[in-house]
Amino acid sequence: MERREFMHKSSGATVLGLAAAAGLLPAAASAQNAPGWNKAAFETKSLNDAVKALGGSAAVESKDLVLQAPEIAENGNVVRIGAQSNIPGTTQVAFVIEKNPYALTAVFDIPAGTDASVATNVKMGQSSNVYALAKAGDKYYYAVKEVKVTLGGCGG
Amino acid sequence: MSDPMRIRAQVQGDKTTVRVLVSHEMESGQRRDGAGKIIPAWFIQSISAVYDGKTVMSAQWGPAVAKNPFVQFSFKGGKAGDKVSVSWVDNRGDKRTDEAVIS
Predict the structure, then answer these.
(1) Nearest-5° angle of CA A149, CA A154, CA A156?
(2) Would you say the pTM of this structure is higher than 0.90?
(3) In what residue span(s) does the Sulphur oxidation protein SoxZ domain sit (chain B) (predicted)?
């Protein structure tokens, strides 16, 4: 092990520990979450875990759910995806990107009178399956498409 | 305080389509700065739209929504000249609300 790196890490940890003890951490490090934000769901790593964290048991594939996503995304920083659910009684539409560090990306609630059709821009770290997820009644449905990313968007 | 959102709401028949362009960094918490330190996550966690006192869209977002987020949705009803307002809250507790007139 490189001694220098070790020293660097351990002293850094000590400083952070002291700062935390003294209540000196900047606000960003102790950021609060918005009311109602489903932290557990947004920390999931797969479609199934996301469905469970949202309160469902499992999702089945549905042809009535249409996912719009590009086959190839040249820039992973901005990928336009959209979903339209033709499943009657859809109350929620969500997007899950399988290989992102946090799979669940966005959850839209669809009140009565609003179309179960939303679109947004997302970031993708690498080529991955993208899922649209729709909730109707207490069941979850999904549609999937593979998006190839030629330039990753999660930098590092 | 962040820049205003750009909101476009258009009524066509019995449907109003709303497009929103939000100005926000949407830092994912995955990137590192020049010194190799992780840049803390800073992103919008909740966003909603209200028309005529009724919520017509509400969403929760994770850090993978793109920088300067775009959203499109549509709802039944809506009259030209009425207002739609959109609000968001990020994980630092910052918030912003903007209004647009339906055309």
Answers:
(1) 120
(2) no
(3) 7-100
Q: Measured between CB atoms, which of B42, B57, B66 is closest to A121?
A: B66
Which band of pLDDT confidence, cut at 50, 70 and 90, is reported for residue A15?
A: very low
- Reported as a single tens digit per residue, the pLDDT across B2-23 is 789 999 999 999 999 999 999 9
* Assigned CATH topology for domain A39-149: Immunoglobulin-like (2.60.40)
Q: Determine the pLDDT at residue A3.
A: 54
Q: Is B1 part of any domain? A: no
Residue B27 lies in a domain: yes
Q: Which residue has the tokens 């996912």?
A: A67
> Does the beta carbon of B15 lie under 8 angstroms from any beta carbon of chain A?
yes
Q: Of A146, A142, A144, A145, which Cα lies nearest the Cα of A60?
A: A142
Query: Of B35, B17, B26, which Cα lies nearest the Cα of B71?
Result: B17
Hey, of B6, B17, B61, B75, which one would you mutate to test binding to chain A, going by the most A CBs within 10 A of its CB?
B61
**pLDDT per position as a tens digit, A41-64:** 998 999 999 999 999 889 999 999
ipTM comes to 0.92
- Is-contact A73 A154, C-beta < 8 A? no
* Domains of chain A by residue range: 1-37, 39-149
Using a CB–CB cutoff of 8 Å, tell me whether B11 touches chain A.
Answer: no
| Mean pLDDT value across chain A | 82
Q: Across the interface, do A123 and B65 touch by the CB < 8 Å criterion?
A: yes
CB atoms within 10 A of CB A23: 7
Range of the structural domain that residue B56 is part of = 6-101
A chain contacts of residue B57, beta-carbon cutoff 8 Å? 108-111, 114, 118
Calculate how close chain A gets to B24, using CA atoms only, in Å.
13
